[in-house]
């Protein structure tokens, strides 16, 4: 055994010597090695390979605390945007069935939803995307390694398979794109043993049943929204505020609609313990942060949506000299995505100060690939990135919130134009439209440049996506008024904004 260990040590020494020789000679196994096979890492890899670089991607999914694991593609494809939007669509179809009867459709009763059918269809689509990504990498001659990656030095990456087999490769540059994973609250007894996260919810074979969602981030609200929409008893526990970081007036519109829609809210409450009862149910104990009173209830599932942590611990970053933000644990990067080590770059959610959004990671990855492979100097523009929250009443925005605009420019220097409107689709169906709302946050002086647009209503993301182009081009309130709307649409209401908050006048839209 001792002889074997000495032999193995000698092999590693030879490997290290070979690595040093390659580095000194300027010859590497790859031009770029990417650690992380999510949206940003894949976008970079395909672009760099297409531009003639020799690229390898290391991607390995550590199973969740509940053992859930998935394939290539990262959070968005497997446990984020894609399955979330499909399950949101399932909920919207449930609402559409109710509306259809007012439009003359005869719907046999009772109408019910089958989780297993939906889950199988969603999971089947996700698996097809996993396969598609592998084919694309192969077609572009990107080497895919299903291994956990970590840094040996600024030009060497170690990969480890699930069975513990190791290999090292040398590379001129390294791109880290490992993203983040959901957190479990460490102060709650039984949180890990008895709870699930967004890493698990989309891969459940059976319905989660009566569910407590802890946390009111966009992840928590979206999951609670589609669970309510398919008929499940759902409660959201909110420690402080909903949709932190978003415009808080719009956040109120979203949660008010959700409450009217059937989702329950436990405001200003924090869980302290989760325990499994002999019946199999989960008993949750919590404290009201205002009254300090204790409460209890039983649920079939508890979903933690209390934030995400960067996947950085296993990368060996500190040893190589990659600087991390002390508060967030994310990688500190410059405008060109470079870390504190010149040959190492970082893109996507693991980078400090970057929006945790799939499209920004994709765009940043492509632009970085062009800078490394060509004479391009173009940097990623992180200003005015649009986003949407796929709650029962969707919310989308681009630019500054009203609060951030006030902080940046002063309350007296901004003008907020707003309107309450009623989607035509809601009229015959007799649906409540009291939270369908639009506002434009503008500079008050000069040409009244638009600082932010906010919209709650049907297909909110589709509406705001087009207007985001306007903000990139420096759109003003005058430009908005001079844009002729498409009638009858919800989006056209943005082009008709004429009531300011400052005026105190009724902002309800009447007539066509």
Give me some keywords for this one:
single chain; 512 residues; alpha/beta; FAD/NAD(P)-binding domain; Enolase-like, domain 1; 3 domains; 7-stranded mixed beta sheet; 6-stranded antiparallel beta sheet; 22% strand; globular
Structure write-up:
- By secondary structure, the protein is α/β, with parallel strands linked by helices.
- It has 3 domains: 167 residues, FAD/NAD(P)-binding domain, CATH 3.50.50.60; 116 residues, FAD/NAD(P)-binding domain (3-Layer(bba) Sandwich); 107 residues, 2-Layer Sandwich (Enolase-like, domain 1).
- Helices cover 34% and strands 22% of the residues.
- The protein contains 15 helices and 22 strands.
- Strands 1, 2, 3, 4, 5, 6 and 16 form a 7-stranded mixed beta sheet that branches. The protein has a 6-stranded antiparallel beta sheet with strand order 17-18-21-20-19-22, sandwiched between helices.
- Strand 9, helix 9 and strand 10 form a beta-alpha-beta unit.
- The N terminus is likely disordered.
Summarize this, please?
By secondary structure, this protein is an alpha/beta fold.
Mean pLDDT: 95
Low-confidence segments: 1-15
Output the CATH topology of the largest domain. Answer: FAD/NAD(P)-binding domain
Task: Note the gap between the termini.
Answer: 85 Å
Question: Based on helices, strands and strand pairing, what is the structural class?
Answer: alpha/beta
Radius of gyration: 25 Å
Tally of separate domains: 3
**Tally of separate helices:** 15
| CATH class call of the largest domain | Alpha Beta
- Assigned CATH architecture of the largest domain: 3-Layer(bba) Sandwich
- Main β-sheet description: 7 strands, mixed
Proportion of residues in helical segments = 25-40%
Shape: globular
What do we call the CATH homologous superfamily of the largest domain?
A: FAD/NAD(P)-binding domain
Count of DSSP strands? 22
Q: What proportion strand?
A: 15-25%
């Amino acid at each position: 055994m001792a002889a074997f260990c000495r032999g193995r040590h000698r092999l590693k020494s030879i490997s290290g010597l070979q690595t040093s020789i390659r580095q000194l000679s300027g010859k590497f196994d790859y031009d770029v090695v990417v650690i992380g096979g999510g949206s940003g890492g894949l976008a970079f890899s395909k672009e760099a390979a297409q531009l003639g670089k020799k690229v390898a991607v290391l991607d390995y999914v550590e199973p969740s605390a509940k053992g859930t694991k998935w394939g290539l593609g990262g959070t968005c494809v497997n446990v984020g945007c894609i399955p979330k939007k499909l399950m949101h669509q399932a909920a919207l179809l449930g609402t559409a069935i109710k509306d259809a009867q007012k439009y003359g459709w005869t719907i046999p009763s009772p109408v019910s939803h089958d989780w297993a059918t939906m889950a199988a269809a969603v999971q089947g689509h996700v698996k097809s995307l996993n396969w598609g990504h592998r084919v694309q990498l192969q077609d572009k001659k990107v080497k895919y390694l299903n291994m956990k990656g970590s840094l040996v030095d600024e030009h060497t990456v170690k990969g480890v398979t699930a069975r513990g087999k190791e290999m090292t490769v040398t590379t001129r540059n390294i791109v880290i794109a490992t993203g983040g994973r959901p957190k479990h609250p460490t102060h709650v007894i039984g949180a890990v043993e008895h709870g699930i996260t967004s890493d698990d919810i989309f891969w459940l074979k059976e319905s989660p049943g009566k569910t407590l969602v802890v946390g009111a981030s966009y992840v928590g609200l979206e999951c609670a929204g589609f669970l309510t929409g398919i008929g499940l008893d759902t409660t959201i526990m909110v420690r402080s505020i909903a949709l932190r970081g978003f415009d808080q007036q719009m956040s109120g519109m979203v949660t008010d609609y959700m409450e009217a829609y059937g989702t329950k809210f436990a405001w200003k409450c924090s869980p302290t313990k989760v325990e499994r009862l002999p019946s199999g149910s989960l008993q949750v104990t919590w404290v009201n942060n205002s009254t300090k009173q204790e409460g209890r209830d039983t649920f079939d599932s508890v979903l933690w949506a209390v934030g995400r942590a960067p996947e950085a611990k296993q990368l060996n970053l500190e040893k190589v000299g990659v600087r991390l933000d002390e508060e967030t644990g994310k990688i500190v990067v410059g405008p060109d995505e470079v870390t504190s080590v010149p040959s190492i770059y970082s893109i996507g959610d693991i980078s400090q100060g970057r929006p945790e959004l799939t499209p920004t990671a994709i765009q940043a990855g492509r632009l970085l690939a062009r800078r490394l492979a060509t004479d391009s100097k173009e940097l990623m523009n992180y200003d005015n990135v649009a986003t949407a929250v796929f709650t029962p009443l969707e919310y989308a925005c681009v630019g500054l919130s009203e609060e951030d605009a006030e902080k940046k420019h002063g309350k007296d220097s901004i003008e907020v134009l707003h309107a309450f409107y009623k989607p035509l689709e809601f009229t015959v169906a007799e649906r409540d439209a009291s939270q369908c709302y639009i506002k434009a946050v503008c500079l008050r002086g000069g040409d009244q440049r638009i600082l932010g647009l906010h919209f709650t209503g049907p297909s909110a993301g589709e509406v705001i996506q087009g207007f985001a182009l306007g903000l990139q081009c420096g759109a003003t309130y005058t430009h908005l008024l001079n844009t002729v709307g498409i009638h009858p649409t919800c989006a056209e209401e943005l082009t008709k904004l004429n009531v300011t908050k400052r005026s105190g006048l009724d902002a309800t839209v009447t007539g066509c």
